[in-house]
Structure formats: structure tokens, C-alpha cells
Automatic annotation (TrEMBL):
InterPro entries: AB_hydrolase_1, AB_hydrolase_fold, AB_hydrolase_sf, Epox_hydrolase-like. It comes from Pedobacter insulae. PANTHER family: HYDROLASE, PUTATIVE (AFU_ORTHOLOGUE AFUA_2G14860)-RELATED, MONOACYLGLYCEROL LIPASE. One of its GO terms (cellular component) is membrane. It comes from the Bacteria. Residues 1-21 form the signal peptide. This is Pimeloyl-ACP methyl ester carboxylesterase. GO terms for biological process: acylglycerol catabolic process. The keyword Nucleus does not apply. Residues 69-318 form the AB hydrolase-1 domain. Keywords: Signal. One of its GO terms (molecular function) is monoacylglycerol lipase activity. The lineage of its organism: Bacteria, Pseudomonadati, Bacteroidota, Sphingobacteriia, Sphingobacteriales.
Amino acid sequence: MPKFLYPFFIYLISLSFNLSAQQQDTLSITLESVKYAYPIAYKDIRIEGQDITMAYMDIVPVSKSTGRTVMLFHGKNFGGYYWTNVIQALSNAGFRVIVPDQIGFGKSTKAFIHYSFHQLAEWNKELLDSLNVKRAIVLGHSMGGMLATRFALRYPDRTEKLLLENPIGLEDYKTFVPYVNTEKQYETELKATAQSIKAYYRNSYFTLWKAEYDELVRIAGGVTLSPDYPRWAKVAAMTFTMIYEQPVVYEFGNLEVPTVLFIGKEDKTIVGKGLLSPAVQAQHGQYKLLGKQTAAKIPGAKLIEFDGVGHIPHLEAPTEFLIALLGSL
């Protein structure tokens, strides 16, 4: 080959590699190629003239059954796939475990509907009905904590115990985060890349990055390459608005069920944090304080704190978290 063609040849190899990597990393917005640890089932739902589906896992106990059920609610940027170690621990301890992907998330339909915690709670109650589960222990992480709180408030008779793992919504964000309408947030969501997602996860969720967390980025970043990503981004913006406009912080005192908070003390999560100046950021999202303040609002609540741990204790400090979780059951 003539020497003057070498650079062009190298360019073609590089281009081919990049396209291949991109094709390999591209994920659909319903995560068809993402393998969950347990079989997926689907519940049909009719809402606002649309037929949609809610994906979920229903895992039977490995050991002798306790006759009790735990339902896991994921955070905003996740789905049932990040609960694997928690499911295994609970199943091994004799619990039935139900793990829904909320509508708009994971393998469930990315529906253009009005999103509300009230409606999501109702769908989860209907899921329990369809599975003949009368009462469940409800564990919610991050946004799932807001949903779990709403579920317990709406259905105290169906909630055996409420478990909150670094829930968001411990503050009323609209009192200090500037308002951004859904369309403007949609424009922000459209700009997401695997690189920006990894930077956000690294800076916001964990105190120390580990290689195993790259799988979370592979999933969240993979959908940004999908031709249907604008739908994913639109739903992400709609659920951002739901979180902003539907606080639960004023209702913690109304909870009637036994409650345990699991708090990574290094968490500094604020929904809409990028809209705030560093000075305002420093005044909010301090979970080492918010955990104690929230526990004081909930009648009879128990607080379990994890030193040196950020937003996702069940991934960052799995042994400590699982010991605390099982001890609370």
C-alpha cells in the first residue's frame, strides 16, 4: 500500500471500530437486550386512551418462606436491574420479592401521560392485587422513596412496613430550585451522553467510583444512542416535573406504618442541583442532616446511617446495607 494511503487506512479502521462500538452499545428505550437477573412479566394497563405495559419481576423465596412479601421501588435513573443483590438476600431469607419497573422506566412503556405519584402508587397496588398479595413491605430508593411514601400514605392497610433508602423529596425543591418547565427540561435531557451520565453518577451517587458501576452507565448511556431516545428524554422530563411539583415532605407526619430510613451520610442529592449556585447547593441536600430531620417527623421512625456512603448504599456498601435491611425485617 502506498504510504500516503496509511493515514486514510488507519482512519477507516478507527471509524469502523467506533461504529461497531456504538452499534454494540446502543440500547432500545425499553431495554430489550438488557438482561435482568430474574424473569420479566408484564401487567397491561389502560390509561388516557393508551394501552401500556408495566414490567415486573416476581421472585419466590429460595429458603423456607416467611409468608411475607417485599416490594422494591427503583430510583429515577434506574430500573429493576440494579436491585439484584437485594433481591438475592431477601429471597435467601425467605421473602417473596416483587420488583416493578414503574411506567416510564426500565422495560415498561415510555408513555406520554400525566405522571403522578398517586397514579404510580395505584398501579403498584393493582399489581399486588393481581398477584394476590394482601400486604407488602415497601422499600423505595431515591425517587422510589417518594413513591413508597405516597404508597404508604394512600394504602396504609397494604403496607406492612415502609423502608426508605436515601429517598429524594426530603426537601421541597420548588422552594429553592428555579422553575424549569417540562419542555425546557426536555431540551436538557436530549443533551445527555454516556460521558455526561458517567460524570453525573461519579460526582453525585458514589464517594468512590468502582469498575462495577460502569454497567449502570452502559445502560443509561446506551439508550441515548437509540433513535427513540427523544421519547425517553421526554418522559424523563415529565417525571422531573412530577418530582418538582408533587412534594411529600409535608406529609411525613401523617405516616401510620412502621418506618425505617437507611441513609448514606455523604449523599448531597438535590433534584435540579445544576440550576443552583455553589452557595445555594451547600445549603441543601445534606443527607447527614436531612436523615435525622426526616426521622424526627415520622412517628416512631428508626434511622440507620452509613458513614462514608453516598446515594446508593445497597451498591456502595452492600454488606452493611443488607445486614441492616434484614435486621429491620
